[in-house]
Each structure stands twice: as C-alpha cells, then as structure tokens.
Amino acid sequence: MKKESYMQKNEYWITQNFMTKKSLIKKIINLSNIDREDKIIEIGTGKGHITEELAKKSKRVFSIEIDEKLYKYSKEKLNLYKNCTLINMDFLDYKLPKEGNYKVFSNIPYSITTKIINKLTNVNNKSSDIYLVMEKGAAKRFLGQAKETRKSLIIKPFWDMEILYFFRKDDFNPKPSVESVLVHFSRKNTSDICTEEKKKYEQFINHSFKYGLYGRRRLLTKRQIQTALKFEKLDQISGNNNVKYAQFLCLFKYYNKL
Question: Which of 45, 172, 194, 211 could serve as 65's disulfide partner, Cβ 3.0–4.6 Å?
C-alpha cells in the first residue's frame, strides 16, 4: 500500500521533461525581470540546471523537489551556492511566503498545471511575477486565446498574461509529445475587481458558462446586458460565443450593483 501511495503521489514527476541546455536556460531567464534583489521560488529542482542559473541571477532561491534522489543529487551539485535552499517535499504541500515579495520561475510537470496555477494565483500574498514553462494548449486556455475560458476569466481580473517564448521539442529531455511555451503571469498593481468581490465574480462566471448569458436561468435580462455594454461602449453580444473578458467584466459589475 505504501509503495502504491508513493507512486500515485509522485506520478506527475515521472513523465516530466527536463531542460538541460545552459544557453537556452540563460536565454529564457533573461526574458524575465528577475534581478539580484529578488527572492525566487522554483517548482521542481530536477538536476539543478535551471536552479543554478537562478542562483546566479537572483538574491535567494528556494527550490522544491519531491523526488528524494533528485533532491540529494542537486543538493550536492549546488552546494557552493549559499543563496540556494533546496527543499524535499511536494510543492502542492509547500507553504508560500505569507509576506514579502517573491517571484516564481519553473519548468513545471504538465500533468498538474492547473493545481499549480490555482495555488499560485489564489494565495493571500501573491507573487509579483510568475514564469512557467507549460504545455502550449494549456497556456492558450489560461490566456483565453481564441476564446475565453472559465480559467482565463477567473484569473484575468488579477493578472496580466503573455507567452514569452515558444520552445522546440528537442529543447527537452526526453522530448515531450506536445508543444511547450514560457508564460508570464504579472500581478496587476490594481485589480479589476476587489478581493471581496472575487467569490461573487467566480459564481457569476460559472453560472454564465453553465446556463448561458441568454439562457432561461440567466442572471441578467437581455435589455440589462445591452444597456450595460452600451454604457461602457462595448460591442453587443449574442449568447456565450466569443464573449471577451472586458464584456464579462462589464456585465459582472452591472450585476454586482443590482
């Protein structure tokens, strides 16, 4: 039972694809705004390739690795970097800083992308910047590219998001079966809704996706929707197809005042 439980808990690390080319690692870190004054959290030390470059670039690095063998290997390899602290545990159980600024940079295991992003974007003391290497399809869903998703709409009031880099499959070992990108989540200085409205906003988004903006169980009448959009000088919509974030935000703010 213990062996099965361990394997289930660590399953998402078994298929992780590692980045080993120093030139590439330096390149993508240089695309970030990380500097010598920053405290960095890395999810997954692996063999320490990214960790080492982060230690050279920043003030402090806290790297969390669930695999004990990789943890021991990297701890010995990175022993000379006194500004680097390795932690042997599951990142999903790791407690993020309760105060102070920090940034996140990581090549994450793709199978728990949603869990990682949910954790990083929902803590009280949010990171100022998050840089994640992730599967391209997942990135497009979180960014709401092509069309908005529940995930993109939940995140956008608090974060600006963009793809900074497109990888080749042979940038990783072993080669992944999917395309990969580097995504930057930048915390907004002023969020589009206040923290107290977050739960109601999420309920509005979930309800609208489930029942439709013009469905029988809609939260706003057709006339209210048209009035709200017209007042904000936004395009009118029909149903849930191709509704943009600005339109959803506008409708929520109108609904929230009722």
Answer: 45
